[in-house]
Amino acid sequence: MKTLVLGVGNTLLADEGAGVYAMQFLRDRYDLPDTEFLDGGTQSFTLAGAIAEAANLIIFDAAQLDSEPGSVRVFEGDEFQDYLLSGSHSVHEIGFADLMDV
């Protein structure tokens, strides 16, 4: 079973790159078997294949969650889908809801 660790964001826009930096931190410090690390940038439909092939998916991204700056939130199962469908706005090329539909 392969786990995909996906870092999302634009490193040129300050804290918007937090997801990419978090993914790089893990990749550079830990040798995790059966784990692929991927810089998803600002997302595109080209990520659909990698996501579909993964048995497990971990996504790091900056988001406005009505909490203190630097807070970390874990979404599991339906909670992630509910968040995607809540109308949250994405500054990326496409939103996760659209990407997951592919």
How would you summarize the topology of this molecule?
Blueprint: E1 3-8, H1 18-29, E2 35-41, H2 48-53, E3 56-60, H3 78-85, H4 96-101
Parallel strand pairs: 1-2, 1-3
Structural overview:
This protein has one domain: Rossmann fold (3-Layer(aba) Sandwich). It has helices spanning 18-29, 48-53, 78-85, 96-101; strands spanning 3-8, 35-41, 56-60. A three-stranded parallel sheet has the order 2-1-3, with helices on one face. The two termini are 21 Å apart. With 102 residues, it is α/β, with parallel strands linked by helices. Helix 1 (18-29) links the parallel strand 1 (3-8) and strand 2.
Short account of what is shown:
The chain is an alpha/beta fold. The protein has a single domain, classed as HybD-like (Rossmann fold). 31% of the residues lie in helices and 18% in strands.
Question: Which structural traits does this protein have?
Answer:
102 residues, Rossmann fold, 4 helices, alpha/beta, globular, three-stranded parallel sheet, single chain
How many structural domains in the coordinates? 1
Q: What is the CATH superfamily?
A: HybD-like
Question: Pairing-aware structural class of the strands and helices?
Answer: alpha/beta
Order of helices and strands: EHEHEHH
The neighbouring-strand order within the major sheet is: 2-1-3
Q: Describe the largest sheet.
A: 3 strands, parallel
Number of helices: 4
**What form results from the Cα inertia axes?**
globular
Strand content: 15-25%
CATH topology: the name is Rossmann fold
Percent helix, as a range, is: 25-40%
The low-confidence parts are none
CATH class: Alpha Beta
The Cα radius of gyration reads: 13 Å
Number of strands: 3
Our measurement of the CA-to-CA distance between the termini, rounded to an integer number of angstroms, reads: 21 Å
Overall mean confidence score, pLDDT: 81
CATH architecture: 3-Layer(aba) Sandwich
